[in-house]
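Lecture 7, part 2: worked example. A protein chain together with pyridoxal-5'-phosphate.
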Amino acid sequence: MKIRDDFLPLSRPALGEEEAAAVVASLRSGWITSGPRVAELEEAFRGLTGAPHAVAVASATAGLHIVLTALGIGPGDEVVTPSMTFASTVNQVALRGATPVFADCDYGTLQVLPSDLASRISPGTKAVIPVHFAGAPADLDPIRAAADRSGIPVIEDAAHAVGTSYKGVPAGGAHRGMPGNIAVFSFHPIKNITTAEGGMVTCHDDALAARLRLLRFHGIERDAWKRYGKGGTPHYDIREPGYKYNLTDIQAAIGVVQMRRVADLNLRRAELAGRYLGCLHGVQGIDLPQEVPYPHAHSWHLFIVKVTGMDRDLFIGELAARNVGVGLHFPPCHLLSYVMGRYGTGYGNLPETERAGGRIVSLPLFPGMADEDVEYVCEAVREILAERG
Ligand SMILES: Cc1ncc(COP(=O)(O)O)c(C=O)c1O
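Predicted complex, written out as structure tokens:
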């Protein structure tokens, strides 16, 4: 094949003139940190998810941190989460002094296995954190049922899931009269919508939302833009120390525009994923992502194949030689050095996760890609596997 001149990255944010104009307007407004644009972005998330509360934060990681803090999770407590996730989740559990307990995933879909997750809930478990992996939803009904039997909350890691839904309910939404889950979304530049860095926590509990707002900003009860605005008073009190995890208006201004575009952006992602699935159908030496077996909307955050016909790292090198960037989502968390050292995890604990972990490769997927880019990647994959596989 003829090697392309330019590098095709794994991802590139879909930012245009509208986002640029929104940033400039925010800069010119005289109020650049958390303010009216953050309120607008929170409103957009209440609209998307149907959750009554949305709390914008500096990142999904920050969101996970204040959620675990607000739930009082600490030393002696356990939190069950898949190992096939980004380390951010596990780090936050560890940083609270709690113990992460890992559940296995399905090899085909990479979603956490509800029965395995349920079997790892113990009297010490204080929360479960399923991940809507790659933009398809985790199987929330059995997960929710298992959590309810133990009276513990479900925290949806919805970092990949702006626009994802499960059985007609958006990530973060309430399921058929059940108490709604807490959900944490990410706006990192690789994600389906971005604010450069940023995140959103949605929840259905008034007291929890109030606590999250305090923990997000020093423990101060009223937002600065209300204290310093016309008619505001500069006095404040702090009853509990908080963090500095607020999102700025400059960032939120980008997010508000991205939220208006998200349905179109996700549609384009789905088209590209469909093209990959068609082009790579029947190719020997890779396993394609399998569809989850329940009604859903997939936001196609990532397109992950598993390399079975040759060494995965050689495959990555061959793609790089053809000017194609890739990602690894994710090295299994139970095999990270500090996790093995601190919690005694290791090989043999989670067979499906380990089988997938050594084979996964994320191929380029972002709305600005052309159909020909997908065809180029597929041709490269076929050639590499034919030559080296
Ligand atoms: C599954 C998952 N959870 C959490 C995060 C953390 O998101 P952020 O970068 O916004 O802190 C990520 C980011 O990649 C992720 O993939």
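The CA atoms of residues 1 and 383 lie 8 Å apart. The domain at 262-388 is CATH 3.90.1150.10 (Aspartate Aminotransferase, domain 1). Keep this in mind for problem set question 3.
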